[in-house]
Amino acid sequence: MTTRLFGEPVQRREDPRLLTGRGRYLDDLGPDALAAAFVRSPHAHALIRDIDVSAALDVDGLVAIYTWEDLPDRLAEPLPLLIPHPALTHGRTAHPLARERVRHVGEPVVMVVARDRYLAEDACALIRVDYELLKPVVGVEEAAQSAQPVHDDVPGNVGAHLVQEVPSADGRGAREVIEGAPHTLAFRLDVERSASMPLEGRGVYARWDADDASLRVYSSTQTSTSVRMAVAAKLGLPLPKVEVIAPDVGGGFGVKIVHPWPEEVLVPWAAMLLGREVKWAEDRREHFVSSAHERAQVQFVRVGFDDEGRVLGLEVNILHDHGAYTPYGIIVPIITSTQLPGPYRLGSYRVEFSSIYTNTVQVTPYRGAGRPQAVFCMERTMDRIAAHLGLDRTAVRAANFIQPGEFPYDQGLIFQDGRPLIYDSGDYPESLRMLKELIGWDSFPGLKAEAAREGRRLGIGIGCYVEGTGVGPYEGGHVQVTSDGRVHVSTGLTSQGQGHETAFAQIAATELGVPLDRVSVVTGDTRRFGYAVGTFASRAAVMSGNAIALACRKVREKALRIAADALEADPRDLEITDGVVHVTGTPAAAVPLATVAVLANPLRYAFDAEAARATQFAGASSFDRPPVQEGQEPGLEGRDYYSPIRSTFASGMHAAIVETDPLTAEIRILRYAVVHDCGNLINPMIVEGQIHGGVAQGVGGALYERMVYDGHGQLLNASFMDFLMPYATEVPHVETAHLQTPSPLNPLGIKGAGEAGVIPVSAVIAAAVEDAEGIPIDRMPISPSDLFGLRGAS
Amino acid sequence: MPEQAHEITLVVNGTVRRAEVPGRRLLSDCLRHDLGLTGTHVGCEHGVCGCCTVLLDGEPVRSCLTFAVTVDGREITTVEGLADGDRMSPVQRAFAECHGLQCGFCTPGFLCTVTALLRENPAPTEEEVLEGVSGNLCRCTGYQNILKAVHRAAEIMAEES
Amino acid sequence: MKPPPFDYHAPRSLGEALDVLAEAGEEGKVLAGGQSLIPLLNMRLAAPAHLVDINRLPGLAAVEAAPDGVRIGALARHAQVERSEPAAVAQPLLRQALRLVAHPVIRNRGTVVGSLVHADPAAELPAVLALLGGSVRLARRGGTRDVPAGEFFTGPLESAAAPGELAVSALFPALPPRSGTAFREVARRHGDYALAGVAALVGLDEDLRVTTARVACVSAGPVPAVADVAGACGHRPPASADWAGAAEAVRARAEPEDDIHATAAYRRHLIGVLAERALRDAAREALNA
């Protein structure tokens, strides 16, 4: 193949429209739609006594006001619990509009529809809801001990409890191993709440076509196919009468994988009821108090190890704060507990978590999805072991690494997809070697001593992780070559800035041997592809990338067979270059793919000169067999699915050098280095971009971002003024190096890259600050004020 | 009772546009909803994220912190007005070349800010670039390629001038 | 996050503006740059019945540097003052402080006088006005008054500007000879409101000994408090002045509060650190003056 586009840093095809203001984001659609707004609970925990809408009825432009009492049938029921799990014994989800009781500030109580958003907000401001206050349950430890239930039928506020245990080679449990270990340590680690916080909030826009009795919904979602099924079910519509499209989406990072959000069923319902287009575009304040958060966990660690720092036994007990509801099940603590071992061979492991209800916004995956907490736990443990033994921190890690010859390596755990957690590939010692070289690990002590002579404090930290990516169950791809030679690719999962239109086009162009500009890609549009799972868990490239490659291979095989007929050649002697099928080594014996597409569709009617070649009197086909042969379909197209046996495991290691101000306690990242292994790279420019963005979010989580609830369950920093997402001035330059150990599990040999950047950052920064200060750092994020407090206490 | 409407005239991307808006209509909403120029995005509506940044008489301002009536008669440039016909501006091309955008939501604000920055200072230092974009949030890129794109845009402008 | 409805007024003359404000009384709010007001409106934390947009008033955008100081009109934007060379020469603290006010794009629209009237104790400009002993000129129907900084800031987000009054300008006194200024602050992110900040003014006599040493602190109490620390420094050349002692005096007097970003103890500590840094910087400037 001359057109080898796979692996090249080609410029993104999305960019021209996004750079010229021609992107189509949710709120750019439906200029004439009515606007929805919501009255949301100002209280964390209360009973609704009465809702008085009378004062709002005079608002100019008001169209409708709805409360829970107005909701019909299935819409009045609680929203679905998306991922049930046997350990989630007390899963609870919210109603689309609060029924009798509110359980967090921001829960929707009343929906208002008006001519525009200004007027809808005017009406909201005039609706009086009479609440009877209940005692709010805030803080995971408080909730675990509270007599006040968040849900009356959930004793102790425990939604789920799960234990996984991997015994030692000689069959002993981790607790027993730790008891008998030469060295033991016990400590507690805390990670605070943060959130995905895409710059575009959520949004839904619905059009009801009364003539056709069909519904079209646009949603700023990470899964249009599943929203479609949810909407059809909730509104009692036949599935073929509902289409859901994810337009350009302004970032997701996890929060938009949850569905259906209340608004995703309420807005289409109102559009049907009113016979008018209705749109809701979430504003920033709503996003803070009604869209999901993540990260908050308290983790208790006990570890036993030998003189070389080899972990003989590790026991971790996790308290997970899942907020008021569990629509996404217990995926986050499952991921924490199963990804915690990282690149290490642990002698034995026991992990237990309790997932606890609180009167706060629900917790669902945010980029990294429980892994930042897991890596914080494992890597802080490695650093403690090194400190205890007086060993180099990288030496302790190296002593515990799974070796390259040990793959596939079974960690003995059940992963988030319900399947065994078996690492497929990687090279951790090489990754560490590359990282140490990149950051200058061995020469750092000299640098540190030199800085110290000038009164400056420097520290270095490291963090390693393994990330299960490309989780199933499946994704599909459809590839169609039309008679103009264009290649139309579609897949059901969605895009939020990952450059899928480019990366998938690179795969298709490479597989089919066509120029890139002939290929177009559509994602997240159920009109084009109805079967999909969604974009999350660093899965899009692995899942849809491979599905599209497989679909292309079907198309290619068909194209070669048809071309072989036309050229009177053996298909095995043919190849496709620049969109032309030709005999290898004989470029003259060729037929364009466009013509093959024409020939692939036997026609009765000619609609243009090209099509005439495939009509019934054109003499193209043999009389000995039917025009469409048995087992074949008309058209040059193919559809295939990729459904992996299990996840593929990417890995990486980060290191940072920080400087702390001896007086002001300000923390500055001087250098940040990343070694990353996601197997074969489809587009290295895009992969680098994903890493940069992930690291920036990690820096946010390590030094700046946290959701601050007071004891009343009020979120104190529900604005960009006080929720401190980093600007360019806060994010370090990221130096990257790539290691490529191809995955043996999929045809393209790729692994996911979307979440990688964010995962180890808190661990790395904590280690570096600890190294600079000589004070144990056991909770993140850390602010200058926190560091000042730690200095005073030590 | 319907709100009083004010008739305003804006020169947007070189074209005279008229709109009838209530006093409270934010410039961001006026551009997006009254004039159909949806390239200007709204990310926070309290002036922190910078997605809504447009050029007011050539100077970048937050359109979510400006009432449309206040700027009656003034010139506005939005992201739709940065290209020269079909040819993207040096800043736009540099962002594409350097992968300075991912989801693209914050991008119009960056483009307007950077366009003004380079007009005022065609060869900015690293510090000046950093300060220049320091008021715009991006959740996708980690900024590294945005900074690179600003320097690249300065290069392209120098080459083409 | 859309503002509530209000009656919009766009007076074309000062007299007209003062008439509208007089009639609106408590229900009226002035709109200049809007960079503090409009976020409050968008969050519906403020709901004035009348909004008086002064952006069309003539003659209020001037930045005039005179021997007594820099007079800044109500429509002069932060960026305009920051760029003004005459202003920077007459009173360098203005530019030093303005560079720390939010981000460049906000400074393109926000006004200096608006920042003063907003009277946020976490903001830089009230501290500058207080440190320099400047004043704000308030006009109302039938009269004008100049209110000295010490009386202008009456509480957090509260100023002496009464309903019906319009702040038309502010005077920032010029830098005396052999004097220097500095502004030091620590913010969580670049451009955020400071966790703590200190503006300093140091003046020397003809023998180049410290005669004046004052600081004003940001985020250290309900209003920007000025501390005279000349005594604590000692009447000595800058190289041997007791800057640490002066800083300690400032620190001891500060009354910061806890919030979600920092403890009061940390802020007090910062004020001491920043006071010493700012005083030393200002003294260096004074020696170079």
Automatic annotation (TrEMBL), chain A:
SUPFAM superfamilies: CO dehydrogenase molybdoprotein N-domain-like, Molybdenum cofactor-binding domain. Pfam families: Ald_Xan_dh_C, MoCoBD_1, MoCoBD_2. Keywords: Molybdenum, Oxidoreductase. GO terms for molecular function: iron ion binding; oxidoreductase activity. Residues 20-135 form the Aldehyde oxidase/xanthine dehydrogenase a/b hammerhead domain. NCBIfam families: CODH_aero_grp5. This is CO/xanthine dehydrogenase Mo-binding subunit. The lineage of its organism: Bacteria, Bacillati, Actinomycetota, Actinomycetes, Streptosporangiales.
Automatic annotation (TrEMBL), chain B:
Gene3D superfamilies: 3.10.20.30, [2Fe-2S]-binding domain (1.10.150.120). Residues 6-82 form the 2Fe-2S ferredoxin-type domain. Pathway: Alkaloid degradation; nicotine degradation. Its EC number is 1.2.7.4. Pfam families: Fer2 (PF00111), Fer2_2 (PF01799). CDD domains: fer2. PROSITE patterns: 2FE2S_FER_2. Keywords: 2Fe-2S, Iron, Iron-sulfur, Metal-binding, Oxidoreductase. PANTHER family: OXIDOREDUCTASE WITH IRON-SULFUR SUBUNIT (PTHR44379). This is Carbon-monoxide dehydrogenase small subunit. It comes from Planomonospora venezuelensis. The lineage of its organism: Bacteria, Bacillati, Actinomycetota, Actinomycetes, Streptosporangiales.
From TrEMBL, chain C:
The keyword Protein transport does not apply. InterPro entries: CO_DH_flav_C, CO_DH_flav_C_dom_sf, Diverse_Substr_Oxidored, FAD-bd_PCMH, FAD-bd_PCMH-like_sf, FAD-bd_PCMH_sub1, FAD-bd_PCMH_sub2, Mopterin_DH_FAD-bd. PROSITE patterns: FAD_PCMH. Pfam families: CO_deh_flav_C, FAD_binding_5. The keyword DNA-binding does not apply. Keywords: FAD, Flavoprotein, Oxidoreductase. One of its GO terms (molecular function) is anaerobic carbon-monoxide dehydrogenase activity. Residues 1-177 form the FAD-binding PCMH-type domain. Its EC number is 1.2.7.4. SMART domains: CO_deh_flav_C. Signal peptide: none annotated. This is Carbon-monoxide dehydrogenase medium subunit. The lineage of its organism: Bacteria, Bacillati, Actinomycetota, Actinomycetes, Streptosporangiales.
